[in-house]
């Protein structure tokens, strides 16, 4: 045992040196070897190092082991600290692989960030832990005394679950002058012991024999098993049964009903009476075969009594014995091959790399790993996968039976915040079988949408003399994003910098950062400000934040808050009233040159324009007449008190004319909320208007009467 352990240790050390070279050549497949019966916790190999991983990378790369079917691995595990592959359960090669010549456990090592899948094979090496065993404690034979020397009598074979050099090697028989042992190798490679008669038997001299048959295996040290052979010498039965074939073969579908006829063996015996009556039985057949097949003792019909499953075992080889009434027997080999049927749907196992993916993930981002496994063989076991329905995801083959679900196009959370896709795995059998697995993927938000105002521009009418702090209007913007706790969609409002009549915009209006309500911070005066233009910015809570602006116009509506004023004549109390020569009544608003009314109907505008045109025509005619008279007159003397209120700078000369009207003003004041105009006569007017006629209390004319020619 120590030598065997030393050899296994040397083999493991050799593999440890060889594996890095293999991993560099084919990094997606690793192979280890370990003897069976290795205790739990024993290290198989440095898996992480052979995969090119450092111990510091293990927490982020998340090294995991998965079986080929996608289930949790049973016999092996990986250390999260060192990345070593170690044994997690007792390894019994005979339990795991039966009598198979080779035994290995294949699984996959999965690492993430980025996602990679590596195939790992661990060969389970056989050790000599089982002794050869006979199914019976003793073998009873009946041999007729007339049997000639050289006759052969097959004996039961010993069973040794070990394989290779540890399997059954030889048989030994305690020396006996009448018999010797001969070992024959069958077509299946098994060693069949046979008892050969050396000398003629005489029942009268010796009616029975007892011997011990020993079976030895090839292990080191060797193990053995024994069986007692008891031979009873009978009277003559000179013909043994003879099978029609030495080997019978049959092919059976795995899904045949229980009780179906699988095969019929037939043997004949030339003897008559009870010596010629043949009965059939299994010879040296393991219990696993007896659990599946039965043989009719009289007809030799072999039926299946258990379920035939190609995936569990695809071939059975055993011996059938035909025995006549005299005790003579013969043997034949039976080989039954189980053919595969497409009776297993693919198994689908999904492993989500992440259940939430940002919407700005590039195409090709891996979101899930899909493992498929079909227990059938051939075309029935070939599986292909596809995604059912429309989605921005696709499935691509990875390695072996693994597939990756990746993003095929850009994601948009605002269109679809969750994607539910169905993975359909179908085999290539006829008819095809399929399985489905559903993946649910949530799309997380990124700040890729700026706030959008509900209107392209806002405007509002604000009456002058409004109360300070009054709400003017409300702007509203919406953001299609969401983000964590709605952060990307949280909109805040603020004013863009600006000025109104040289003052900061923020001194006129303010905006509520949460609601978007716009407030007037002061009382507006139409005569000072008629319109306020500003920009409101909406900004979301993303990082970096996105924003958009909207134009807002505040139109100030005039109110009748100013009484009309008479610009001429100046009031008597002023110093300029002494030279007053005419009257012009012009109601004005508080701002010169501006009508008091804010809204004039169209017909009134037309009427005012017509009156203005007639007045201009009249003045032109009057001016022409006065110029004509002036040519024939002379200017009043400077001592005349008539023009002492008019400064000389207000006269201009045109072709000798010394005096004419310097300016003329005609203002009409109307209001939108009054049906008639009110004329006021305020005192103190300084407009330079030449009066058209002298006041009643003045008699100084502007021009002298025309002298007769």
TrEMBL record:
A GO cellular component annotation in the UniProt record: plasma membrane
Gene3D superfamilies cross-referenced by the UniProt entry: Cadherins
CDD domains associated with the record: Cadherin_repeat
Keywords of the record: Calcium, Cell adhesion, Glycoprotein, Membrane, Repeat, Signal, Transmembrane, Transmembrane helix
Localization in the cell: Membrane
Listed PANTHER family: CADHERIN-87A, PROTOCADHERIN GAMMA-B3-RELATED
Full protein name: PCDGH protein
Organism from which the protein derives: Crypturellus undulatus
Lineage start: Eukaryota, Metazoa, Chordata, Craniata, Vertebrata
């Amino acid at each position: 045992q120590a030598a065997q352990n030393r050899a296994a240790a040397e083999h493991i050390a050799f593999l440890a040196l060889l594996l890095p070279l293999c991993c560099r050549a084919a990094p997606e497949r690793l192979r280890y070897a370990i003897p069976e019966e290795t205790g739990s916790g024993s290290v198989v190999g440095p898996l992480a190092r052979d995969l090119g991983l450092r111990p510091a990378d293990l927490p982020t790369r998340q090294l995991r082991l998965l079986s080929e079917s996608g289930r949790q691995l049973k016999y092996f595990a990986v250390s999260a600290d060192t990345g070593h592959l170690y044994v997690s359960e007792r390894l019994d090669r005979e339990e795991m692989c039966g009598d198979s010549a080779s035994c290995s456990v294949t699984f996959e090592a999965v690492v993430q960030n980025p996602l990679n899948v590596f195939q790992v094979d661990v060969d389970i090496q056989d050790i000599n832990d089982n002794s050869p065993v006979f199914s019976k404690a003793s073998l009873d034979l009946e041999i007729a005394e007339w049997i000639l020397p050289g006759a052969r009598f097959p004996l039961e074979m010993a069973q040794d679950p070990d394989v290779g050099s540890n399997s059954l090697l030889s048989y030994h028989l305690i020396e006996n002058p009448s018999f010797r042992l001969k070992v024959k190798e069958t077509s299946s490679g098994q060693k069949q012991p046979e008892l050969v008669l050396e000398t003629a038997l005489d029942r009268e001299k010796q009616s029975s024999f007892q011997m011990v048959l020993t079976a030895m295996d090839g292990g080191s040290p060797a193990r053995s098993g024994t069986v007692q052979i008891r031979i009873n010498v009978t009277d003559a039965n000179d013909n043994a049964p003879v099978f029609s074939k030495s080997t019978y073969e049959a092919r059976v579908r795995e899904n045949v009903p229980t009780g179906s006829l699988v095969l019929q063996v037939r043997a004949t015996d030339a003897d008559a009476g009870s010596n010629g009556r043949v009965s059939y039985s299994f010879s040296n057949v393991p219990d696993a075969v007896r659990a599946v097949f039965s043989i009719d003792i009289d007809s030799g019909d072999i039926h299946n009594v258990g379920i035939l499953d190609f995936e569990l075992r695809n071939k059975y080889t055993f011996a059938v014995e035909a025995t006549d009434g005299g005790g003579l027997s013969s043997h034949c080999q039976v080989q039954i091959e189980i053919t595969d049927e497409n009776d297993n749907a693919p198994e689908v196992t999904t492993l989500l790399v992440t259940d939430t993916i940002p919407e700005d993930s590039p195409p090709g981002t891996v979101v899930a790993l899909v493992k498929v496994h079909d227990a059938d063989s051939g075309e029935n076991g070939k599986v292909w996968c596809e995604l059912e329905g429309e989605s921005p995801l696709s499935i691509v083959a990875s390695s072996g039976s693994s597939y990756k679900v990746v993003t095929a196009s850009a994601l948009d959370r605002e269109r679809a915040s969750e994607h539910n896709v169905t993975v359909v795995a179908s085999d290539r059998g006829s008819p095809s079988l399929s399985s489905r697995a559903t993946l649910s993927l949530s799309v997380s938000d990124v700040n890729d949408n700026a706030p959008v105002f509900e209107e392209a521009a806002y405007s509002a009418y604000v009456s002058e003399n409004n109360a300070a702090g009054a709400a003017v209007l409300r702007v509203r913007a919406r953001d299609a994003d969401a983000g964590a706790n709605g952060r990307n969609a949280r909109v805040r409002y603020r004013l863009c910098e600006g000025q109104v009549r040289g003052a900061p915009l923020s001194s006129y209006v303010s905006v509520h950062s949460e609601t978007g309500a716009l407030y007037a911070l002061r009382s507006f005066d139409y005569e000072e400000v008629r319109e306020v233009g500003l920009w409101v910015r909406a900004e979301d809570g993303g990082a970096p934040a996105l924003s958009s602006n909207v134009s807002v116009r505040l139109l100030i509506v005039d109110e009748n808050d100013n009484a009309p004023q008479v610009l001429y004549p100046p009031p008597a109390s002023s110093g300029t009233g002494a030279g007053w020569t005419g009257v012009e009544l012009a109601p004005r608003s508080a701002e010169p040159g501006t009508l008091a009314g804010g809204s004039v109907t169209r017909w009134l505008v037309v009427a005012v324009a017509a009156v203005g045109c007639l007045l201009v025509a009249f003045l032109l005619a009057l001016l022409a007449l006065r110029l004509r008279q002036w040519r024939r007159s002379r200017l009043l003397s400077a001592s005349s008190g008539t023009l002492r209120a008019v400064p000389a700078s207000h006269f201009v000369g045109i072709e000798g004319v010394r005096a004419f009207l310097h300016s003329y003003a005609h203002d009409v004041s109307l209001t939108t909320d009054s049906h008639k105009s009110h004329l006021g006569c305020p005192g103190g007017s300084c407009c330079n208007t030449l009066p058209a006629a002298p006041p009643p209390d003045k008699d100084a004319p502007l021009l002298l009467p025309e002298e007769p020619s």
